[in-house]
Each structure stands twice: as C-alpha cells, then as structure tokens.
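Request: Give me one sample?
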Amino acid sequence: MGFMLPSPTNPREHARALMSQKENIEAELDAQFSILKVNNIDMTTPLVDREGFPRADIDLYAIRHARKRINELRNDYKAVMNEIETALQVVYDPSTAGSSPAASQEVAQHASLSDSAESLVAFARVDGVAPNSPAAEAGLRREDLILKFGSLARSSFTANSLQPLADLVSVNENRELQVVISRSEETMTLKLIPRKGWGGRGMLGCHIVPHES
C-alpha cells in the first residue's frame, strides 16, 4: 500500500505536510535500498544461479519484498512531487487554486506569453557560481539578474526572502527549470536542472541574493 497524501487545509500547511511526506518516502527508499546493498544486489540483478535455481547466498524473500516496495515508493514519490509542485503554485500564486492540472498548465503557458510581452522585474541576483555546478552548466554567471525562476516571478515574493525559490528547487531535483535572466541589458532564457552529487553544496551550485530594482 502506498503513502496517503494529506488532505488540503491551509495552503502553506498543506505544502509543508507534503514536504514531510516526501521526506518520509525518501527515508523508506533509503531503508529498502540498504537491504539490497547488504545482499550486493540492485534492482536488476538476477536472483537465480546459472542453472536457474534460486540463489542460496542471498535473502530472496527480503530482496523481493524490497524491490516491490521500492517500485511502490517510486510511484508514491512521483505523485507527491507533482502534488508539491501544485501546492507551491497555490501558495505563491493563489489564482491557480482549484485549477485542474491541464488548466494550470494552460494558465502557466498564458502567463509565460504575458511575461514575454511585458517587462519582467528582477527579484534576485546571482552573487557567485561554482565551477562545474548545475548553475554553471546552465550558463548562469555572477551578476546575472533573475527575472523569472520556473513559475516564480517578482510577485511570488512578499518579503525580502528567497524562500519560495528554495522551496521550488527542493521539489525539482533532476527536473528542468526555465530561468529568465537579464545580462548586460539582454534578456535570455536558460535551462537549469537542480541536482545533488555534482561535487559541491546544494542542488544549484550558486549563491543567489535578493535584488531591489
């Protein structure tokens, strides 16, 4: 049985509950993968020997159960990540509340067209970029001004804090985000994929600070 998604209450509370659910799924995934690791097995390693008999050197029951649970958890993880993305949209853009996924996508596309038609206002500045980081691979440079980050624009921020940006990054690991920047009075769109394991801290590899126009 998969994880049950929390019922919507206050948008921010709902988003926090979903984030907690995500962390629980990640913790159980780690536990299940540790069972495979103890047996020197991965998700595709054969469980029979060359003669076709069940291997006697591993815990077959535990491995089969772990593999089955991992597949279930992966589906749960995908579902909760989609829920989190929708929840964060509602938190930072209440006008999307109650929209279906298709309608939300249509609204997002319309908003993107509207943004391209009007002048976006910078809300953040890149203060540093680590070599070989996801930010560097995307083409971000120091002093770039961020006009839009994924679905976030200046209107998404109500205080001198970039928490909405951090929240968006945390639920988009290994997923492409479009970042609209201004560099030397030229506007350009970059494709950024947050990820861990690139050799440095965080999933971006850059220092972003608030910017007041």
The longest strand covers residues 177-183. The radius of gyration is 21 Å. Strands lie at 124-129, 145-149, 177-183, 186-192, 206-210.
